[in-house]
Amino acid sequence: MSPSGQGRKVSLAESIGAHLLLVVAVAFALYPLLWVVSLAFSGAVEPTPRVLPVPLEPTLEHLRGVAFSTLEVPGEPDRWLFGLQLANSIVISLATALVGVVIAVPTAYALARFDFVGKEGGVRALLATQMFPAVASAIPLYIILDGLGLLGTRSGLVLCYATTAVPFAIFQLRGAFETIPRDLEEAAMVDGATRFEAFRKVVLPAARPAIAVTALFAFMSAYNEFVLAHTMLGREEMYTVPVVLQRYISEFSADWPKFAAGSLIVSIPVMILFYIAQRHLIAGLTAGGVKG
Amino acid sequence: MLRRAAARLSARAGARVFGALFALLAALAPALARAGELRLWHAYRDAEAAALVAIVEEFSARTGHRVELLAVAHESFGSKLAATIPRGQGPHVFIDSHERLGDYRQRALVGDAGPALEPDAVYTAQSLAAVTQDGARWGVPLSAKSVALFVNASLVDRVPGTLEDIAALKLPAGVYPLAYEAQSAYGHMPLLAAFGGRMLEGDARFGFVGPAAARSLAFAKELVDRGAVPRDADGALVSDLFRSGRAAFAISGPWLVGQLAGVEFPWRVVPLPKVGETGLPMRPPLTVEAAMLSPQGAASPAALALARALGSAEAAALRQRLAGTLSVRTDVPVPEDNPVLAGFRAQAELAEPMSADPAMRSTWEPAFRAIRKVLRGQAGPDDALAEAARRFADVRRPPPAAASPTPALLVLGLGMLLVAFHLVRRARDPEARRALRASLPAYRYVAHSVVVVGLLVFVPLIVGAATSLFAGRPGEGYYVGLANFVEILTARGGPLLATGSFWFVLLVTFLWTAVNVVLHLGIGLALGLVLSRPTLRLRALYRVLLILPWAVPSYVTALAWKGMFHQQFGAVTGLIHAVNDWFGTSIEPIAWFSRFATAFAANVATNVWLGFPFMMVVTLGALTAVPADVLEAAEVDGATRWQRLTRVTLPMIRPALAPAVTLGAIWTFNMFNVVFLVSGGDPDGSTDILVSEAYRWAFTREAQYGYAAAYAVLIFLLLLVTTRLPAWLARKEAGR
């Protein structure tokens, strides 16, 4: 038997093994999700233990019930409420990603390139913020936002989300900037660019994948959040979708099918984003790093 | 050239995206400018919300006052009121359950509604009593809700007189005589009443103790053990069983009516039966929904007029007709063509209003745990009830005494002096001044984020941490020094390693973090390595599918997992049945949440599922940095596959993985959702981790924010020490 023949055989068996492992993992990943899908499309209930998540008497009623809710303002024509709320969710999350990145990028760059007084302490303090459970700092946050006149506005919410996303973003981006060779900027500066121009025209484009990933994280954290959103937003047409979904579950009666249907609808934009971003995601995630 | 053009193109595209974003924000803004004159908050959905809109429209047309409606989630009504009313952004009028009145009054969230009420005679005595406290009326009673008995008339033609007769019914296989939430305290209350007991006695004394309570529990256990009542039933299961004809009777509320729209069998609603053993009827707790006024609303004639309109006879009739909501007015009869409403009315007359004492909130958790323990056969009724009473007393224990703030102020002052001294010394030091001047360019890059993060992250965090030095209800807190920490660290005077004590929870939390991080890393690493095989087909497809658990909101998937672990109806039990069928084995379905090991395993399974995609993606990214020629060189040198993995690949990706593992460990340590949603601490609070324990103190046990904040500070310190430890040790070693 020739060595190459043996190699091929092994790799066939290995390839089957690899696919087997992946198929098992995919089944593990999808099985609970399929139950959510099945619940969202089921028109009937059958309380028996079942193995396959197949919808019973499939129906689109729940999806429709969630997606076509209207805003009933006394004395005004109804408006498409769910559309507004989905738009709110997307706009608030995009704005969060934008603001978060804008805040984090220069800071991360300074951390990667400059030495300055207070740098080490600042980085440590930033990591420490991740360790404090958010539950305990919610009430002071309301008071501060109220002082800024931002309580109950979407801008205030965006600011909250953006700042909580910033520590993680800074760690990610600092690592990314550190992997970009200093020679690139120095060459630009020799050619007469200022440091800021070099940063803007050379470093930023090179770090684009990492920035995309950071933005995606900020987007995700804002998109799924409902505690702050529920407490801060004071108008139904300002609500984000997670707040709306939360209302399908109340103390006595829970409308699980609608809850599931709504969750599916909300996850569609995220899945599209993930699909688009997955290449960047894989290149960008590990570029960052926490050095505490 | 081409590259520059591409860059310009992408810059333009970026500008367009931002432009569109701001246009969208601007388009949404007009809604913001439109302000209503009166704000009305409610928690209604569907038909009830529609009825409310109709009533409010009529009010606006008649009086010219504009009313703005806001639907608020029932669970967070209180926290939203507390966050907004003191800042003048809350509602003028809000519709909520009367049992929250005691709490709202303590927090000054509700004003006197007396002027909005009509003469006493138009309301039922019960509903009037429900909104009356200390001689004043705190809301206009609107409607009454309680559970009643739903009868599937195709399975039984006659309603037996007693609960015992119902339990003894002969029915087709797989059909339960009765479905009700046996495991919940709310579901148990009618039975408790039939034995002459109550959850809370009049003087805020724990009532769920003593012979009556013990007999009611023993009775419930017998019902479940005989299979007359489903085990571990929650509200959703009760309605599913009844809707699918798998329960002859169900104890449920008006919320079930809407779900019975399409069912094929005839059904009706009657009052709950008697218990033969005592001869007393089962009396459910009655919830009276009332239009309450915030202090701001109580001072406004328009808001009072709105509350009165909501409680008017016309409004009540409309609610009954459109939404089937039972009125509490004596002058509004139940429509003759609505036997369901008549059934609820008959039940309401026999029901007892739920206690509005704030202490009621502290009864749920101890009672719930005692009931579950007894139903599972893990404790006798007497022991379980004694423990519940002890728990109630523990939670209700008066907060620590006020301490003098002088020592803390002294320490604070001294600390500030030291810092100032240090700063002055550094400012004088030319070396430090030079360093500071050299830092100036860098400060231009960080100044804005220092301001924003400082204001919105650090300040709330520090204030939050400082609340740990205070005790008492929100708004009337007082300084207690380190008393909260002392209480926590001494396990509130109980045994140090008892379930629920800080030290026990700490051990569970460390176990939880370690197991999760190892599994996240193991699975993520394995999948990442397999996915990075150059010859693998369908790689992109696998990658997208494996990322999905991360993309779907985790609160819905956590609940899906919980459903899968239901002992009787979960998919895991379905799988066990399937395995038994195929292989002829006889594995018993597992009661996941009745033992620590299995409940913990269920939590871990859920969290591993949620977290492995992150580690997989991190691994994939790290692997792209491993140069192929290094691996080839190792292969040429005769390294085996395993050696290449452990000696080349893993050491090379370690630096990239380490930060992800650190952050992953921190997040897992504080992973509140999974524990709270999946096991909910079951059994008996043993699977709670520190952060869910902190949450319970803040939200379900008397709103002890100071105590919860002390937990948060301890979590913070623990994480700080654990994550810094390796670096400190390394430095020490290096210094030697």
UniProtKB/TrEMBL annotation, chain A:
* Repressor recorded as keyword: no
Q: Which PROSITE patterns match?
A: ABC_TM1
Record field: transmembrane: 20-45, 90-111, 123-145, 151-173, 202-223, 259-277
Start and end residues of each ABC transmembrane type-1 domain: 86-277
Q: Name one GO cellular component term.
A: plasma membrane
Where is it located? Cell membrane
Major localization class? membrane
Top-level division of the source organism's lineage: Bacteria
GO BP of this protein = transmembrane transport
Record carries keyword Repressor = no
- What keywords appear on the UniProt entry? Cell membrane, Membrane, Sugar transport, Transmembrane, Transmembrane helix, Transport
Q: How does it sit in the membrane?
A: Multi-pass membrane protein
Coiled-coil residue windows: none
Q: What does this protein do?
A: Part of the ABC transporter complex MalEFGK involved in maltose/maltodextrin import. Probably responsible for the translocation of the substrate across the membrane.
Task: State the family named in the UniProt similarity comment for this chain.
Answer: Belongs to the binding-protein-dependent transport system permease family. MalFG subfamily.
What this protein is called in its record is Maltose/maltodextrin transport system permease protein MalG
Report the source organism. Nannocystis exedens
UniProtKB/TrEMBL annotation, chain B:
Q: Which organism is it from?
A: Nannocystis exedens
- At the top level, the lineage of the source is Bacteria
**Cross-referenced InterPro entries, in alphabetical order?**
ABC_transporter_permease (IPR051393), MetI-like (IPR000515), MetI-like_sf (IPR035906), SBP (IPR006059)
The entry's protein name is Carbohydrate ABC transporter substrate-binding protein, CUT1 family /carbohydrate ABC transporter membrane protein 1, CUT1 family
What Pfam families does its record include?
BPD_transp_1, SBP_bac_8
> What range(s) does the ABC transmembrane type-1 domain occupy?
506-726
Tell me the CDD domains matching this sequence.
TM_PBP2
In the bilayer, the protein is annotated as: Multi-pass membrane protein
Spell out the family assignment given in the record's similarity comment: Belongs to the binding-protein-dependent transport system permease family.
**Localization:** Cell membrane
Q: What are the record keywords, sorted?
A: Cell membrane, Membrane, Transmembrane, Transmembrane helix, Transport
Q: Which residues cross the membrane?
A: 406-424, 445-471, 502-528, 540-561, 652-678, 705-727
One of the record's GO cellular component terms: plasma membrane
GO BP annotations of the record are: transmembrane transport
